[in-house]
Structure formats: structure tokens, C-alpha cells
Write a structure and sequence with these properties.
By secondary structure, the protein is α+β, with helices and mostly antiparallel strands. Helices cover about 40% and strands about 20% of the residues. The protein has 9 helices and 18 strands. A hairpin with a 2-residue loop joins strand 8 and strand 9. The longest helix is centred in the N-terminal third of the chain and has 31 residues. It is elongated.
């Protein structure tokens, strides 16, 4: 390739002359601030208009299809202005890439100089320092030709004096990816974690297909991907809170229930009435029609079923919430439990379809009418198995491929 061809290639690859207008540079550099909310809005709009259509048979997945439609609309919205002003947009993009690369080059040069500069001779140190300062000065100006010239000079000086300190591309990518993975693990382990509701035991508070975030800071820290907890909880669990916990009798499963009683409480359940320390929980019929769609994702061959129910407003502690029960009142012999220290007693809001503390004695093989011995802890959740407090619903997939848009970003009480 001739020198003239090389020069032409450099002109195409690198933006020369004065920089594009500042407003255009800022707008293009922060385009994602507009694009991400717009994409989310378009996606929810597509979901809204396709909610009545069953997309379960459309490959590869209903959400991917809806997202693809939203992306296509977004491409059109951004594509038309791009085609109309392609030249200036391309120039601005190249200008931004040049300045981004220049800043990275300065950062890399400063890192190498700070670590290995003392090994250089005085004249070499002066040359590297001057080259870095020249690029810094050019970055503050509006002349891309000067920036390209100083960048070329910096590259030559680094290759001459500090080439041994250059990081390999594999090392740079490894550090970036490793840092991102570490941050994600720390967030998951110590702050929030996502869970999906697979069954209807917490209806109406939580529906099958709800995706929730859980606050893990309140009840102690846990080693990622294990049930080993270290440190102490920030505060005691409270009556009425919805928690996610490791099921004590099968630690491969996570359950979500509402705390009915805390350490020292005496719980009594007679038929449908729940009493804490001898006082029945406040309970009144809820207004409106009581019905829901139920499904158990963990049961093979399960199908969606429509259930008619009776709804009640109940209060426990500082929380007021709704519970549902079957149309036919459920009659159970009275049972009572005393919650031991560092344990809680939990119940589901769908009282007749919840596998909770009331029935864990039966799972162990005891007769349903037999009381658990006072010292028996089989009916309770130990503090160390509590993963966190249910926070809010960030997604809610309903029957077939529908989405419950009205439930998105609602807090859990």
C-alpha cells in the first residue's frame, strides 16, 4: 500500500479539523438516556396491545417476540433521523470515539508512568510526562488534528520507554468482566435478589408469575450460592411482614410466606380464626368479588384454574393485608404453638392452599389433630434461614402469555 493510500485511510478512520457542535456531541454521547426509557415504554406498549393474544406457541418466547417488535419500532424512530443527517452524525460518532480513546490512552499512560516511571532515566521521564501533558491539553481544545498528532506522539514515546508495561487485551477484558461479575455477586449476596412466585399460596398479595425483588440487608448477609449466613440481622423480623426463606425441611427450596408470630408468641388456629397471645387477629370481610386464577408451576401437568373465594381484610402488627379462603369454610381442630427464640411462625395468605407452619408437623408424619410438643421446632423458620423481606414486584406474567401491567413496580405489604 502506498503512503498516499495510507494517508487516505487515516483520514477516513480519524475525524480531522474542528469538532462538531457541543450540543450534538452531548446528545449523541448520552443517547442511551433517551433510548432505554423509550425502549421500555415501547415494550410495555407492545405488551399492552398483544395481551389478549396467546403467544405461547410463537417461538422462541413471547417476551422475545414482543421485545423484537419494540426494537424494530425503536430502530425506525432512530433510523429516519440518522438517514436524514447521516454525515454529521457519523462525524460526531467518530469524534466521540477519538476522544474516548484519547482519554483511555492518557489513563493507561499515567498508570504505567506512575508505576514504572522511577525506573526510567530523567530524559525519558521528561519525554513521557511531556507527551501526556500534550494530549491532555489537546483534549481540552477543539482541534482534532492536534489531538491526533499528540496521540501519535504519546504512542511513540510509550513504545520507546514503557512498552514492557502495556497490558494485553486479554488482561484488560478479563479485569473488566471480572469486575462486573464481582459487583453482580456482591449485589446478589448482600443487597437484593430476584425471585419468581411459582404457586398461589400467597394469593392475593402475590400472584403466580409475579417476579419480585427481595431486600437481603435486613436479616443478615449470606455467602453466595450457599445457605451459610454470617453477621447479625439489622433488626428483628416483625409480624405481618412477607419474607423469603429456605424451607427448613428441604433446603433446596425457597418459600415465601407472611410472618404470623415472632419469638415468644403463642399462636392458636381454630378453624379459620388465628389468635396471637390470646387475641384474635382483626379480620373483616373484604368488599368486591373474590376470584383468582391459580397455577402450580412445580406440579407436572398443572393447568390454570379459575377459583371463586371469600376475601377478608386482616391486620397483624403494623401490616393490613388481604387473605382468601375457599367458598366452603374449612374446619380444622384447634392447634397452638409457642414460637421459640430466633424463630418465626409463617402462614400463606391463601389460607386453604398454603403449605406453611400449620402443617409441617403433618409432613413429619404426625397426625393432623396432634399438637406439636412444646419444645419441637419443626413448625418454625429459624432466623438463619430467612433470606430477606419481599420488596416489590418488577414483573408479572399472567395466564398464557399475558402480562399484568397494573402490578408492575407495586410494593409488597
Amino acid at each position: 500500500m502506498s503512503e498516499e493510500e495510507k494517508a487516505k485511510g487515516a483520514e477516513v478512520a480519524l475525524p480531522s479539523g474542528q469538532r462538531p457542535p457541543a450540543w450534538l456531541r452531548v446528545g449523541l454521547d448520552h443517547l442511551w438516556v433517551l433510548a432505554l426509557p423509550l425502549l421500555l415504554g415501547l415494550f410495555l406498549l407492545v405488551v399492552h396491545f398483544t395481551n389478549h393474544i396467546d403467544l405461547t406457541e410463537v417461538p422462541p418466547h413471547p417476551r422475545i417476540v414482543q421485545l423484537a417488535i419494540a426494537l424494530a419500532i425503536l430502530s425506525v424512530l432512530f433510523g429516519i433521523p440518522y438517514l436524514m443527517f447521516r454525515q454529521i452524525i457519523d462525524q460526531t460518532r467518530d469524534d466521540l470515539l477519538l476522544h474516548r480513546d484519547a482519554k483511555l490512552s492518557v489513563r493507561d499512560a499515567e498508570r504505567r508512568f506512575a508505576r514504572y516511571g522511577k525506573l526510567l532515566k530523567p530524559e525519558a521521564r521528561d519525554a513521557v510526562s511531556a507527551a501526556i501533558a500534550a494530549v491532555d491539553k489537546a483534549l481540552g481544545g477543539e482541534d482534532n488534528d492536534e489531538l491526533i498528532k499528540t496521540l501519535h506522539g504519546l504512542d511513540q514515546v510509550l513504545n520507546k520507554h514503557l512498552s514492557f508495561a502495556r497490558k494485553s487485551p486479554l488482561q484488560e477484558y478479563g479485569e473488566s468482566i471480572g469486575g462486573a461479575v464481582l459487583i453482580a455477586l456482591l449485589l446478589r449476596a448482600f443487597t437484593v435478589e430476584a425471585f419468581k412466585i411459582p404457586s398461589g399460596s400467597m394469593i392475593p398479595t402475590l400472584q403466580v408469575g409475579d417476579h419480585i425483588f427481595v431486600n437481603k440487608l435486613l436479616f443478615g448477609l449470606r455467602i453466595p450460592f450457599t445457605n451459610i449466613k454470617f453477621g447479625h440481622h439489622l433488626r428483628e423480623p416483625r409480624r405481618g411482614e412477607v419474607i423469603v426463606f429456605v424451607f427448613p425441611h428441604d433446603q433446596q427450596k425457597d418459600f415465601i410466606k407472611r410472618i404470623a408470630a415472632i419469638p415468644g408468641d403463642t399462636v392458636e388456629v381454630c378453624d379459620e380464626r388465628v389468635s396471637i397471645n390470646g387475641k384474635p387477629l382483626f379480620r373483616e370481610p373484604a368488599s368486591g368479588i373474590c376470584e383468582y386464577d391459580d397455577f402450580d408451576e412445580e406440579r407436572p401437568g398443572a393447568r390454570w384454574t379459575h377459583q371463586i373465594c371469600r376475601g377478608f381484610r386482616e391486620k397483624n402488627g403494623n401490616e393490613t393485608y388481604r387473605v382468601v379462603q375457599d367458598v366452603q369454610p374449612s374446619l380444622h381442630p384447634c392447634q397452638s404453638w409457642v414460637v421459640p427464640p430466633e424463630h418465626v411462625f409463617v402462614m400463606g395468605d391463601n389460607r386453604d392452599h398454603s403449605h406453611d407452619s400449620r402443617f409441617w408437623c403433618e409432613q413429619r408424619g404426625l397426625d393432623g389433630s396432634q399438637l406439636c410438643p412444646p419444645a419441637d421446632k419443626v413448625s418454625f423458620v429459624p432466623y438463619e434461614m430467612i433470606k430477606g423481606k419481599a420488596w416489590f414486584i418488577w414483573w408479572s406474567a399472567g395466564k398464557a402469555s399475558s402480562v399484568r401491567l397494573n402490578r408492575l413496580f407495586t410494593s409488597i405489604h
